[in-house]
Amino acid sequence: MQRDMDLIRKVLLELEAKLGPEAVDTVKVVGYDDPAVRYHLLLLAQAKLIDFEPELTKTGRIIRVVAFNPSWQGYEFLDSVRNDAVWNRVKTQVSDRGTALPFDLLKLLAVETLKKLFGL
Predict the structure, then answer these.
(1) What's the half-sphere exposure (Cβ side, CA atoms, 13 Å) at 48?
(2) pLDDT of 41
(3) Is the dihedral of CA 72, 76, 79, 81 positive or negative?
């Protein structure tokens, strides 16, 4: 399964929108099935973008993530891509170049796009 940055963003937005601190083992995202969302929750946990508790195998491998909310780093990323216009511009810039970007560069591009939006 490939990493889907649109889904990453949507999951973070859904976790942020929760009304309370309760844990969830999946997030409902329109257009995505539960296995895809659970896999992306695992990716978010590996990237330290969410606060979570792991469900482990007997050998210690994480097989499922129980998510609480975005972590500090998750909020930082979310703040850089929250604006739909910024996110769409970033996606267009990446797609125009015909390549995927590592997460850190994607976030940097989003921050630079946001700066331009605010005239900084």
Answers:
(1) 4
(2) 95
(3) negative
Evaluate whether 101 touches 109 at the Cβ level (below 8 Å). Answer: yes
Q: Which helix (H) or strand (E) holds 50?
A: strand 50-56
50 pLDDT band (50/70/90 cuts)? very high
* Secondary structure in 3-state letters for 12-36: HHHHHHCCCCCCECCCCCCCCCHHH
18 Cβ contact list (under 8 Å, min separation 6): 24, 69
pTM of the model: 0.89
pLDDT one-digit tens code per residue, 9-45? 999 999 999 888 888 878 899 999 999 999 999 999 9
**Could you tell me the pLDDT band of residue 93, with boundaries at 50, 70 and 90?**
confident
Task: Give the phi and the psi of residue 76 in degrees, each rounded to 5.
Answer: -60, -45
Q: How many residues does the chain have?
A: 120
